[in-house]
Design brief:
CATH architecture of one domain in chain A: 3-Layer(aba) Sandwich
Number of strands of chain B: 0
Largest interface: A-B, 25 and 15 residues
Distance between the termini of chain A: 33 Å
Largest sheet of chain B: none
Number of strands of chain A: 13
Strand content of chain A: 15-25%
Radius of gyration of chain A: 23 Å
Helix content of chain B: over 70%
CATH topology of chain B: MetI-like fold
CATH class of chain B: Mainly Alpha
Structural class of chain A: alpha/beta
Structural class of chain B: mainly alpha
Strand order of the largest sheet of chain A: 6-7-8-3-9-10
CATH superfamily of one domain in chain A: P-loop containing nucleotide triphosphate hydrolases
Strand content of chain B: under 5%
Number of domains of chain B: 1
Oligomer: heterodimer
CATH topology of one domain in chain A: Rossmann fold
Number of helices of chain B: 12
Number of helices of chain A: 17
Helix content of chain A: 40-55%
Largest sheet of chain A: 6 strands, mixed
Shape of chain A: globular
CATH superfamily of chain B: MetI-like
Chain lengths: ~375, ~280
């Protein structure tokens, strides 16, 4: 379990380096997107652009609800992008703006460089069929169809011949471990299995981007964790990108390469789990991350002190890399009985982590220590 | 006021007369069409001897409902023949089948359209309310004026009475597709036709089947009433028995009606559940 977790973290780091190096590879580019619901939404939008009214003013003056307010985000190739928010934060609206299930009131959504709002019906269908898959919280498996027929639905709609689409659907079902269930009906499956079928259905059409709308929220905690790990592994193995909506910060941290935190329709902060936990943008985010375990999030480089401030000698200390997490460091300390660990990058001493630093890191005031 | 009412009545009468004088060929054609359909169905039903029909119905009920229902169906139908009511029972069945087929041919597509177009639905609702609140034998009057005494008139009135449930329940079924499946369709990139055939219709089937069952039952009720206009079948037998106070005949004809109604109701309800 722990080994897998660490492997995940390492692959996540590799992925991050890759995506950061290649920022031109943006699959979804969401630029200042607004969604206003209500009869007078056109007037409300004008008031927002001309007079800069806030969400509260809009509700009072125009009786319109601002679902998403000025949302800007980029989903890069190979990345899992989590959008975390509580109910009513606009996260479900935001994800539906990405494949135009909801029309944006203002702003632009570019999918692989093309403005999705400007597409005609046929192009939009083509984009949804081939480039953006979607998985729903309610799963939405067609009850009259078998698991295989459900998994093949996307290709069936595209007019792919039966043999071919069934082969693709079987392959997708094999990936989620449900090959033996293909002839069953959705009602015969447990909730977790149904959601796997939902994922297989999205994978059958082989889209580059998968939109996940709170897919695991209705599942019990054990199954949820299992599916989270499987989903992350599968997405990375297949080289897909995903936008993953959740109301659970733990889930966002487990799954996401980057996380956007939403509140009242606004994206408050976007960053990696470590960035958000270490540098919360405001009190709301800080309260949110307060209970999150730092063990796997905080890395040696953010808690270490310069080697010069260390009284003792670095000789004979256990070594670690700057990317080692606190959990690993604690392991090293308890095993060796040493008071400190030397942080080395490419064979060069870059800093020292003491027990005191580690405790600060666990508490979350590592920023002060590092600064 | 009275003048106005008299003038209105005269105008309606004249219009009817004008129609029957000038458009007689149209109505004659309709009449031939309707009677042809009815005669065809009846011919098919009378082709095999009664015990074959009873056995087939029993078999169907057995498959759909179970062994007990199958035996009961066959026995009940044989009882109809034993009471010497077989030809009337079959002509009533032929009327119900013909009327239901016509009614469904109109009401299914209309119901689908109403389900997809809220404005059509709003326009249809008062019409359907009107049809269902009027006493059903009202529809015999214009029909008899234009089509004359006989099964064609019975068919037209029956079709009118049988249509509303299927229209309403089809529209309802099409309209109430769960939203998550509509979203699924859009997100998968379905065409509007695929949305209808692959998503909306499958979810509407139970509701549509319930509508068809109700239409069938409405058709049954009307077919018996239409005995007054010479529909043939059990309705006419009962009407004749009432006029001559022939209680024995009216009772065994009624039993035959009950048998037919129950068999058709149970079998179509079971068909709705199977789907």
């Amino acid at each position: 379990m722990r080994a897998a977790r660490q492997w995940h973290d390492k692959s996540r780091d590799r992925e991050m380096e890759m995506t950061q190096a290649d920022t031109s590879d943006v699959l979804i580019d969401c630029r200042s997107v607004w969604k206003v619901f209500g009869d007078r939404n056109a007037e409300a939008i004008r008031a927002i652009t001309e007079r800069g009214l806030t969400k509260k003013d809009i509700l009072q003056e125009y009786n319109c609800v601002v679902g998403v307010s000025d949302a800007t985000l980029q989903v890069r190739r190979g990345e899992i992008f989590c959008i975390m928010g509580l109910s009513g934060s606009g996260k479900s609206t935001l994800i539906r703006l990405l494949n135009r299930l909801i029309e944006p009131s203002l702003g632009q959504v570019l999918v692989k460089g093309r403005d999705i709002a400007a597409m005609d019906a046929a192009t939009l269908r083509e984009t949804r069929a081939h480039h953006i898959g979607m998985v729903f919280q309610s799963v939405a498996l067609l009850p009259q169809r078998t698991v295989l027929e459900n998994a093949a639905f996307g290709l069936e709609v595209q007019g792919v011949p039966k043999d071919e689409r069934n082969r693709a659907a079987e392959a997708a079902l094999a990936k989620v471990g449900l090959s033996d269930w293909k002839a069953r009906y959705p009602s015969e499956l447990s909730g977790g299995m149904q959601q796997r079928v939902g994922l297989a259905r999205a994978l059958t059409s082989d889209p580059e981007i998968i939109l996940m709308d709170e897919p695991f929220s209705a599942l019990d905690p054990l199954i949820r964790r299992q599916l989270q790990d499987e989903f992350r592994q599968l997405t990375k193995d297949l080289g897909k990108s995903a936008v993953f909506i959740t109301h659970d910060l733990d889930e966002a941290i487990r799954i996401g390469d980057r996380i956007a935190i939403m509140k009242d329709g606004v994206i408050i902060q976007t960053g990696t789990a470590e960035e958000i936990v270490m540098n919360p943008a405001d009190q709301y985010v800080a309260d949110f991350v307060a209970g999150i375990s730092r063990l796997h999030l905080v890395k040696a480089h953010s808690v270490m002190i310069p080697a010069a401030e260390w009284q003792g000698t670095a000789e004979g200390l256990p070594r670690c890399s700057p990317e080692a997490d606190i959990d690993t460091l604690i392991g090293q300390i308890t095993e060796t009985g040493s008071d400190a660990i030397a942080v080395e990058d490419a064979g060069k001493l870059v800093g020292i982590v003491t027990i005191r630093n580690l405790l600060q890191g666990v508490r979350g005031d590592a920023v002060a220590a590092a600064a | 006021m009275e003048n106005f009412v008299t003038a209105f009545d005269t105008a309606v009468d004249n219009a009817l007369f004008w129609l029957s004088d000038h458009a007689a060929f149209v109505f004659d054609f309709f009449r031939l069409l309707l009677e042809g359909l009815y005669d065809g169905v009846l011919w098919l039903l009378m082709l095999p001897p009664f015990h074959v029909i009873a056995a087939l119905a029993g078999l169907l009920a057995w498959r759909m409902l179970g062994l007990g229902a199958g035996i009961a169906t066959a026995v009940a139908l044989i009882a109809c023949a034993a009471m010497a009511r077989w030809p009337e029972t079959m002509s009533t069945l032929a009327l119900v089948i013909a009327a239901t087929v016509i009614a469904l041919a109109i009401s299914l597509p209309l119901g689908v359209l109403a389900g997809l177009m809220p404005r059509l639905d709003r326009a249809l609702t008062p019409v359907l309310d009107l049809i269902q609140t009027m006493p059903p034998y009202i529809y015999l009057l214009p029909a008899i004026a234009l089509l004359g005494y006989g099964p064609a008139t019975a068919l037209v009135a029956t079709v009118i009475v049988a249509m509303p449930p299927t229209i309403r329940l089809t529209a309802l079924g099409i309209r109430q597709t769960p939203n998550e499946f509509i979203e699924l369709g859009h997100a998968t990139g379905v065409t509007p036709m695929q949305m209808f055939w692959k998503i909306r219709l499958p979810f509407a089937v139970p509701s549509i089947m319930a509508g068809i069952n109700q239409s069938l039952m409405m058709a049954f009720g009307m077919v018996v009433i239409a005995g007054i206009v010479g529909s043939g079948g059990l309705g006419e037998t009962i009407y004749g028995a009432i006029r001559t106070l022939d209680i024995a005949t009216s009772i065994n004809a009624s039993i035959a009606i009950v048998v037919l109604t129950m068999v058709l109701d149970r079998v179509t309800q079971a068909a709705a559940r199977v789907k």
